[in-house]
Amino acid sequence: MKPEPFDTRNNAAEPRNSGLSLSIVVPAYNESENLTDAIRMIASGIPCTVSDHEIIIIDDGSRDATAEIIRGLAADNPKIRGIFHDVNRGKGAALSSGFREARMEWVLFTDADLQIQISELPAFLDRTGDRDIIIGYRLGRRDPFSRKLFSRIYTAIIRLTLGFAIRDINCPFKLIRRSFLDSSDLHSRGFFIDTELMHAAFGNKLRIEELGVACQPRQRGESTVRFRHVTETVRELFELMNRRSAP
User: Tell me, what CATH number does 150's domain have?
Assistant: First the structure.
């Protein structure tokens, strides 16, 4: 069913640094249960002080109705564009596809699972005057003990191997200058994309700030994170370390 047209602006609080343009990149894999509500939430929550915006949704080879929903949303709203992968390539590949298509000055990437609301955006926009990357860390996150343990271990590994520490490196709410993304040579196809981005940011001495964002439990659909993603992330970490040490 084609969704009804919806408003793309509201009267959210004005950030100090207004008038910037914004690309919002949303990867989606089997998110048919959440996608329409997520894009409505995102589109209606963009502050009026954003001078121009676009919403880029990447269907990463979904097996459900995600692609059909994206086409319907794009047909109803010229600010929305879809990118379609024939097969599931991974989070990193999906984000890279979105980054390549982004046209605006700043790029926000976020998930389609409705766990982080676009109402967090004004606080991020308010930091753009003197920052290059503003990244979220999730507050009120309700994950199994095993996932929290892995996150802590992974943070420690990144600190030891790459020399930096981010409170919640995989938080899916990051606002980044597009000029940095355009100049970055990203290799990750999976969940390591967040670490690779931050490694490049620290290497380029970018100005970084972390902000807390409220995280709601997933209400519909299933998380796509699996144990195999842990091993893939470790493999991509070793590949990055090998590239760093190559002559």
Answer: 3.90.550.10
